[in-house]
Amino acid sequence: MTNRFTQMDCFILAGGPQNPTKDFEPDGELTRLETGYRRYASIFEKVRLVLKPAQATERYLNYPHVCDDDPRNSPAVGLVTALRNSESDAAFIGSSEMRDFPLNLVVDLVNSYNNELFLGYRLAGPNQPLFGICHRDLADQIQAMTDLSRQK
């Protein structure tokens, strides 16, 4: 039996639209983003940050990361970047805005995952923190929706 925590990629979306700079400000010795990274890395083997190029400062270059070149500050854009860079069929997507979650929520989700397009928790509203597993096949669908919203 394969260990899903070593096989599944985990991405942390940084600098969300609610607080674009708060993730990068010191919160004790670490930033919120660094605290979140360490929390996810305590259970996943492959964790990467999703950053805008301007956010990929020296402090974060030692962290595994991918850059999202789209100028829009949207969780959907960061999600597409994560899924297109995923080496696994499904990836756990977390938001740096959520860092005090019980680890058993993640473990239960990963252990319950059965190739759904999405399995996770979501709140009502357009700018919600992400917390769940998304299948790579969602990337094109989300990209199409964000392209449509751009045309409006």
Brief description of this entry?
With 152 residues, the chain is α/β, with parallel strands linked by helices.
Could you explain the architecture of this structure?
- The mean pLDDT is 84.
- The protein contains 5 helices and 8 strands, in the order αβββαββαβαββα.
- β2 and β3 form a beta hairpin.
- The chain has helices at residues 4-7, 32-41, 75-84, 103-112, 138-151; strands at residues 9-13, 26-27, 30-31, 46-51, 65-67, 90-95, 118-121, 131-135.
- It has 152 residues and is α/β, with parallel strands linked by helices.
- The strands form 2 sheets. It has a 6-stranded mixed β-sheet with strand order 5-4-1-6-8-7, sandwiched between helices.
- The longest helix is centred in the last third of the chain and has 14 residues, at 138-151.
- It is globular, with a radius of gyration of 15 Å.
Share of residues in strands: 15-25%
What's the average pLDDT?
84
State the helicity in percent bands.
25-40%
Give me the number of helical elements. 5
Largest sheet descriptor: 6 strands, mixed
Poorly predicted parts: none
What structural category do the secondary elements indicate? Answer: alpha/beta
What series of H and E elements makes up the topology?
HEEEHEEHEHEEH
C-alpha geometry: globular
Instruction: Give me the side-by-side strand order of the main sheet.
Output: 5-4-1-6-8-7
**What's the count of strands?**
8
Q: What Rg, in angstroms, do the CA atoms define?
A: 15 Å
Q: Span from first to last CA? A: 47 Å
